[in-house]
Amino acid sequence: MTAFPFSLENPIEWPGPPPASADVVVVGAGVIGVTCALFLARRGLSVTLLEKGRVAGEQSSRNWGWIRQQGRAPEELPIAGEACSLWRQLARECGEDVGLAPGGVTYFAHTDKEMAALHEWMPHARAHGLDTHLMDGAQTAALIPGMSRQVIGAMETPSDMRAEPWKAVPALARLAAREGVTIVENCAVRTLDVMAGRVAGVVTEAGRIQADEVVVAGGAWSSLLLRQSGIDLPQLSVRGTVMATEPLKQVYAGAATDDKVAFRRRQDGGYTLAAAGFHELFLGPDAFRHCRRYLPALREDPLGTRFKLAAPAGFPDAWRLARRWSADRPTPFERMRMLDPAPNARVVRDTPRAFAKRFPGLGEVRVKAAWAGMIDAMPDVLPVVDRCTALPGLTVGTGMSAHGFGIGPGFGRVLADLVVGRETGHDLSRFRLTRFSDGSPIRPGPAL
Q1: What pLDDT is recorded for position 349?
Q2: pLDDT-flagged residues of the chain (< 50)
């Protein structure tokens, strides 16, 4: 069994050097940052996209590869629908095979309570014109045959899709570069450059870049960077373990999940597997500082969170991690170029067994690679996508809470229009940064 193929040993595709100035600097070259930079370039701006490690080296290449509308918070649904259209468009424009394919997404129900939750979500699907439908046990068995464990029903959205993240996001970056975005890898942003109470650019390890607008899309690192400029973002990160199997007979062309295992058909003929509803939160200073804000989500437990005593050295909420620094010295971002957490060994052992038990006709399920990623999470399991009123010139797009890959192009387009002052076409009030400080109740999104 091999580890995840993305590493710092991969050649740098965009070595720089960074320019002295740009109209906009985007921090973080995951799916959000890459697509935001692409759409900013299409608005006629000069854009520099900075990445401390490698493009898509962290969660944007380590996720499940689902492109789904199903189960999302109603406020996300219009953007998720736009993202599906953009994925089809951008995949054509890339001119590369990113593994984009139809197949649908299915959620299984084994209990009346689980089935009731699916019924409760259906009005959102109807309100947004989705092709989502409910099935009984017999219909589910006909759609996905060979299951040993009976279900009482399921919900399916046939228009939902899948793609290969480690192919798709770098391909989008190459498209952005062809359209004029300056991408620089191995170039950490140490602090925002602030003058007269507004953004004036960024300070990187390679020097200053002057820019009137900065977008922070740094995933699990966003809170740490923003804190240097007095922006409080109650973001934490949780570890998710994922694995890829050797080729197996197809049981379903799309992605599906129950209470034990989530699976997706892969382009290489295998499956991407994960333990459904299982993530691990490493307890550090920020976890305790933001504990009160996370209590509503923890009560509902939409992330199936398990607690670990301490984050490994260098991780975003590690106990000994520096939280203040001078811009003329190396920072935590340079010391941890790429978050590459070890996968949970028990999950790697048990998840293929659970999958094989559900589909006994597949025979032995062999894992060829296993990896983990750190998912940037927010207290209500919804992202922050907003202009920062406390610091003019700053726009934030982070805390995607395991939603980011599929919806990425939609939020990338939205962020670009926020920067240039265009109407986004969507109600973004649920994603505002100030919802954690203006006394609003914290309402977790759907636990689907």
Answers
A1: 97
A2: 303
